[in-house]
Protein: COBRA-like protein
Organism: Triticum aestivum
Amino acid sequence: MAPVGGVAGSSRSAACCAVLLAAVLFFSAPATTEAYDSLDPNGNITIKWDIISWTPDGYVATVTMFNYQQFRHIPAPGWQLGWSWAKKEVIWSMVGAQATEQGDCSKFKSAPPHCCKRDPTIVDLLPGTPFNQQIANCCKAGVIKTFNQDPGNAASSFQISVGLAGTTNKTVKMPKNFTLRAPGPGYTCGRALVGRPTKYYSSDGRRVTQALMSWNVTCTYSQFLAQKTPTCCVSLSSFYNDTIVNCPTCSCGCQNNITRPGSCVNDNSPYLQSAINGPGKLTGQPLVQCTSHMCPIRIHWHVKLNYKDYWRVKVTITNFNYRMNYTDWNMVAQHPNFDNITKLFSFNYKPLTPYGGRINDTAMFWGMKFYNDLLNQAGPLGNAQSELLMRKDSETFTFQKGWAFPRRVYFNGDNCVMPSPDDYPWLPSASPLTKQPWTLPLLVFWTAMATLLAYYV
């Protein structure tokens, strides 16, 4: 019976190992829903490819990218769109954009095409491009805003003349393997699908024309694909506690001069200017100030005052990146009292309702045009501040158990690292007597004084 038992034991061991291996593979494999964001469940960039006319050997198409993301835009140096041709197509000419490489066009004896590569990469033209090379929604250096911040600049378009392609709806082939860099990795694009032909309205609105054929491509964003380490962190403080909860250590990486030489620099370092003007600036590689968290962006949430019917929060956004100005930045935060925002200072604000309008606990903030919409690089001017005044709800409002601090914070669409809830500033009355007993009477006294003063303000 021993051999039988041994075989059974081996089978059970093998089965157990197989289950463990499957579990390891399941949890370590990239999730198919990695790009899903509960605060922006329908966010994507949709590429619409509209054939507007046929040519002797191909067609002319208008390609438009629509940013349907609520709080994630494409910053400078802008987007790069790529694909692979299904056959041996070439690009005869382009308006509003250009291919980064021409490729091998030696087989064309007369005027060569604009691009002969099998997998072209397209970039937007710069502002100031001559008018005969422009179309609507082009020439913004690849920058695409969000509909919430700037709906008039939430799309980018170009026109392309394709040769050596089909000349009818049945013979033309859709491009494959679309890629979108904005400006780095992060977006994953699906395959092109035939959609309803796009309709175009005349300027007077009295005539409607439509594309001969339309394709749609959807691209979704994943923060994990964009960057392996986070890009921002959150620190906390309050009037009722003298403790400042800093960003978690190594939130966006750690200082290591051996494996990451020159990854950060001190603000008083004599090598600061040479590091800023170094070769890394050309590649867009960040150069951050040496801190314990090593994040380019830190957002500080300070519970400032407590009134009878209201309470006030101060938010400070600090740029620790010496190589980047954040233009048209935005911040998204989640807090249960955002449905009672009464007054906002120096920031624009819009409520977001990711749960179908049933809960209003998510808000988007961004700077005012020509005032603080540009977040300067690290230095004396590298910060933006605002204060929020919120009305209290007697049934839900409390300072206990970290309720006064945000649940989640995003900067430019990336989720920021939050401190551990165990480290949040605690109320003096809720703290154990073993925690700094000599400071307890003083904190209670100042909390009572602040409440009394706020009552009569």
The first strand starts at residue 45 and ends at 55. The CA atoms of residues 352 and 362 lie 5 Å apart. The mean pLDDT is 85.
